[in-house]
Design a protein that fits this description.
It is built from five helices and no strands. With 177 residues, it is mainly α.
Length: 177
Amino acid sequence: MHFHRFAALLAGAWLAGCLFMDMVATQNFRSVDRLLAAPSPQLAERIQSMGGHDAARMILRHQVAEQNRWYFETWEQVQMALGVAVFLVLLRGGGRNRWMLAITLVMIGIVLIMHFSLTPEITRLGRAIDFAPPGATSAERARFWKFHGAYSGSELLKLGLGVALAVLLVRRGPTES
């Protein structure tokens, strides 16, 4: 079996999934504004009965936020499985490149920190501010954005390490074990 190729496939799926999730999260929120910018006549009527544009936007953004929370929690679980699979495949393939193993372990560690530390706090704070007026400042909102920034930084670090892993996998070339 070509362990190297399988590891590259798994690492590629991991990177592609990360990029896809980043796109989904941002586009979900933008879809609310696109929908409200040009609602169908039936939707416009319902928006007015809900209390107007601002009320509808708040409810729709809350729904999107809940959806994103579920997506990220689920994706983090998938990443843990992918990370362990990449590590085991590299290890089973002889584990000759300790850099690949180390990078994979650091990536798994980042996902664990995101899943067990950052995501629960982002979820808690996000739910606390979901219905706050858009321009209102609060300690919870400031704390939310700090955690969100830490999450984004962690994601960028993980992606950078994933690219480094991909480069090592490509440069090493396929070998059979």
